[in-house]
Amino acid sequence: MQALIDHLFNIKDLIPHGYCLSWSPALLWLHVGSDLLITLAYYSIPLMLVYFIRQRKDFPYPWLAAMFAGFIVACGTTHLLSAITIWMPLYWLDGLLKALTAIISIATAVLMVWIIPRALSRPSSAQLQAEIQQRKTAETAQHEAFDRLQKIAGQLPGMVFQFRLRADGSSCFPFASEAIRDIFELSPEDVREDASKAFALVHPDDYGSIGPAIRKSARNLTPWHHEYRLRFADGTERWLFGNALPQREEDGSMLWHGFVTDISERKRMEEKLHDSDALNVSILDSLTSRIAVLDAQGVIVAVNKAWRQFAKDNDLPESRQNMLGLNYLDICKNGCSQPHCHEVNAAQAGIAAVLAGERETFNLEYPCHSPNQQRWFHMNVLPLQGSHRGVVVSHENITERKLMEDELKASEAKFRSIIEVSPVPMALNDEQWNITFLNQAFVQTFGYNVDDIPTVADWQSKAYPDPDYRRWVDTTWQSALKKTKQEQTDFPPMELAIRCNNNNIKTVLASAAAIHHDFAGVHLVIMYDITQRKQIEAKLNSIFNASVEGIITFDMSNIIISANAAVEAIFGYKPEDLVGCNINKLMPPASPKEMSDGDSSQAAESIGQIQEIEGIHKDGSAVPLDLSIAEFSIENEHYFTHIVRDVSLRKHREQQDKEHLDELAHVTRLGLMGEMASGIAHEVNQPLAAISSYTQVSLNLINTEHPDLVKLAEILYKTQQQALRAGRIIHRMREFVKSHAKQRSTANINNLIHEAVGLCIDELKQNDIRLTFELSNNLPTIYVDHVQIEQVIINLIRNSVDALLNLPEKRQRQLTIHSRLTLNNDIQVRVKDNGPGLDEEQQQKILTPFYTTKTDGMGMGLSISRSLIEAHEGTLHFNSHSGKGTTMYFTLPVRRKSGTR
């Protein structure tokens, strides 16, 4: 081995391949670079093949991939040696490696020739996909057939089944109807793979016979008929009768298709019949069905009481033995009317087939009308059990059921007629999505008839020409149908845009309902035309968004539902950003919800009234608003609408007007003080004169030899009181005439009246005017500017004084001031005099600015007084009759606990 290795790597007498290339650097590196790149590529390909095989474990020819990988690695190695032999003449190693490569290549080529036909015989991915699709289609069809079979089997009075006996002796029920739950108290799933649970219920005494009966049926391929019992865990027993037809399967198993019924009741009756004929007769007589027992020739051998009574009531022929011995078919002929002879023939054939053993049972519904009424009966024929051949024929009166069926058919006809005359477009489609009916409203609304749109697909292509919209409608509709079926809920209405036959677009609200019973599998589609409503909504939305007032709608939870474009100008928020937010984001927390929790009269007063509030701008600043609130309900859900107007400019102007009014009020107060100067001077002089007298007396006492200090202290105290009196008069005058910012606070109107009268009292005394107060006690407080209200009262008193000065000297001058609470819950103040009054011309102008009845007056007193009262949300009026005096009166709102009117 060592000699072989030495021989392979022996480079003696050999020259490198570079000599052949004349050691040209460009040519040399061209060869070397190309070989190395080829080597790198060849070495990477096997790695990819290995990765592919590891990922695709289902690849059927991994050994072929291994051969390819070996061949490619060998080729790559030859190129690597080609690069090495440029400098090292390892030609023996290179040659052997090329020989190995040739062997692997030939083997791979031979395998390819062998494998290609087999690879081509394997199915392609398209074929596999087609087979999968076919399998899915078959499974779907099988599932639908299974569902239909379950529904049909569910209507039968027993269990429909398939029973499979496998070659290894095991068994199962591939199919069992839902009746297995009532008969075996098992579910279909319990026996689908293994029938042992069902056989475990077989009565021990019957277990030994049921197996041989099954094997005999399988061996001879004859029908299986067997009666056996079940015993349950609670000890109860149940008799069953089973019959089935066998079928041999390709896998060697046997498959029976059959039917099992509960014959426990029949068995109990048979047991009782065996015990006593009398008991048998009594049981038969207790049954409401008409029952007759026929022998092998169709002769009646026994009847029950119901049969005999029926024959008697309908005058049917009777024998000496109570109809015993008569042929049954003859009696049927006498009872059936001639138009129904085919039912008689069917009954004869059916009974004969049961007697001959050709049929297990026979059932027939037939008319048996009497001269008095129409009746329907259901006949059931069963073979007699035991050694005697014959049949038992029972007749059950099904007239009531037939009448109900007729009523149902009439109801269905009425249903169709209602759909036909309904003004709402309606359509019916079946399970195959064929349109089976369109009412007249549908045809008139959309212009299509059944010939235009025979299928739902035709309808969709015409009604929804846009492919994307059509796809959305179909997907959403199918999803809603599926959800409705699964959750047993109503179909949610869908708003759809439909292109009519005349190319007009109609907007509809579509709904659907699955109709059961005879319309099983049919969908009723109802389409309410809401085109006009949508047009009205569009107009209302345009008005809504064009309104200069902000309109905000929110629910009882204060969550905003909608807002118009004007809201952005008022609050700085885009309407879509406000939807879902709390209304308190824009306005104070006081809301209709809070009002609804409180006084109902207060809530009713706020709804529909304009209120002044402050809103909150996006930048945090306050926005003065006029607010109006509306309330509405939709489907027992309450909503509120806030209509707001930005009154910032109006508020600014009002503030300017108020400031101007304050300035005018200040000027008029100064004027009043000038007019009242003599009276006020007299009032001030009185305490000053008293002070002068008291000080003179004090000086005299002090200058005596023994001053009386007690008397001196008394005189000094009186001097102090007169000084305080003068100070109060001057303070009151200063407070009245000084210019001050508007300040409001609570006040008692009677106190303000007394304060105002205090400034005028000396003038009233000087002019010999008798002042009378008629003030109501316990009046509510008011929220006012004290000085301004006193100014109004003084103005009214001064006007009355001027009027009273024009009375003759012999007449008593009287001035009366009233205060009271009105029925409107306002405070009213009246200043009444017995002066000469005002004529009609003066009454028309007395409250206008710059009108005066005085020779030196400015005509601003009453005008400013009215402005001051109105600024307090009150009113100022007068009553006057020439020669009978004048009454000036004003009202002010009462201050409530909340601080608002």
TrEMBL record:
Organism domain of life: Bacteria
Every PAS domain range: 411-453, 536-589
Histidine kinase domain segment(s): 679-896
Lineage per the UniProt record: Bacteria, Pseudomonadati, Pseudomonadota, Gammaproteobacteria, Methylococcales
Organism: Methylobacter tundripaludum
PROSITE patterns registered for this protein in UniProt: HIS_KIN, PAC, PAS
MF-aspect GO terms: phosphorelay sensor kinase activity
Residue ranges of domain PAC in the record: 224-275
Segments traversing the membrane: 28-52, 64-90, 96-116
Enzyme Commission number: 2.7.13.3
Keywords of the record: Kinase, Membrane, Phosphoprotein, Transferase, Transmembrane, Transmembrane helix
Reaction catalyzed: ATP + protein L-histidine = ADP + protein N-phospho-L-histidine
PANTHER family: PAC DOMAIN-CONTAINING PROTEIN, PHYTOCHROME-LIKE PROTEIN CPH1
Protein name (database record): histidine kinase
InterPro entries reported in the protein's UniProt record: ETR1_N, HATPase_C_sf, HATPase_dom, His_kinase_dom, HisK_dim/P_dom, HisK_dim/P_sf, PAC, PAS
